[in-house]
C-alpha cells in the first residue's frame, strides 16, 4: 500500500524590517494585521487575535462569544522563527513553520504549511496564505 505525499504550501515575502521586528510583528502584533474579516471563524465579530509567545502557547481569536483556537506553538525561537500545530478545519493536524532571515536591510519571511492529507485543503491554503500575508507585508513596509 502506497501513500501519496501532498506537497507543502511554501510562501516567501520580503519586509522592510529586521528579523527581530518582523518576528515581533508576526507574533505579538498579529492582531494589527491579520485579515480577520476574511480569515477567521468570527469574521467581523473578532475583537482580538492572540499569539502566546512560548512553546505550548496558543494562537487564537477572541469574540464576544469566547475564544477559538487557531494553533498551538510547538517551537518558538525568536527571532529566527516558530512552528505551530495548525488546528483549523480540514487543515487541523497540519503544521505551519515561519522563518525570518536577514535580506538586505529587511527580512525574508518564509512560510511552510505541511502535512496535508487532502489535496483540496492544500489548494485552499495555497491561495489563502497570499491573502493573509499581504497585510503583513504592508504592515512591514516603511
How are the secondary structure elements laid out?
Layout: E1 9-15, H1 19-26, H2 30-33, E2 48-51, E3 58-63, E4 66-77, E5 81-86, E6 94-103, E7 106-114, H3 119-139
Antiparallel strand pairs: 1-7, 2-3, 3-4, 4-5, 5-6, 6-7
Explain the overall architecture.
By secondary structure, the protein is α+β, with helices and mostly antiparallel strands. The chain has one domain: Alpha-D-Glucose-1,6-Bisphosphate, Chain A, domain 4 (2-Layer Sandwich), CATH 3.30.530. The protein is built from 3 helices and 7 strands, in the order E-H-H-E-E-E-E-E-E-H. It has helices at residues 19-26, 30-33, 119-139; strands spanning 9-15, 48-51, 58-63, 66-77, 81-86, 94-103, 106-114. Strands 1-7-6-5-4-3-2 form a 7-stranded antiparallel β-sheet. Strand 5 and strand 6 form a beta hairpin. It is globular, with a radius of gyration of 15 Å. It starts with 8 loop residues before the first strand and ends with a helix. The mean pLDDT is 95.
Amino acid at each position: 500500500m502506497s501513500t501519496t505525499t501532498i506537497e507543502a504550501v511554501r510562501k516567501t515575502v520580503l519586509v522592510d524590517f529586521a528579523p527581530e521586528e518582523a518576528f515581533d510583528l508576526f507574533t505579538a502584533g498579529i492582531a494589527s494585521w491579520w485579515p480577520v474579516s476574511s480569515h477567521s471563524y468570527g469574521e467581523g465579530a473578532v475583537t482580538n487575535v492572540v499569539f502566546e509567545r512560548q512553546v505550548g502557547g496558543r494562537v487564537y481569536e477572541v469574540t464576544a462569544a469566547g475564544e477559538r483556537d487557531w494553533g498551538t506553538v510547538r517551537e518558538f525561537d525568536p527571532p529566527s522563527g516558530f512552528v505551530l500545530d495548525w488546528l483549523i478545519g480540514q487543515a487541523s493536524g497540519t503544521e505551519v513553520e515561519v522563518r525570518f532571515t536577514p535580506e538586505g536591510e529587511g527580512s525574508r519571511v518564509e512560510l511552510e504549511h505541511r502535512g496535508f492529507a487532502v489535496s483540496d485543503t492544500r489548494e485552499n491554503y495555497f491561495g489563502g496564505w497570499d491573502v493573509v500575508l499581504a497585510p503583513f507585508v504592508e504592515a512591514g513596509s516603511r
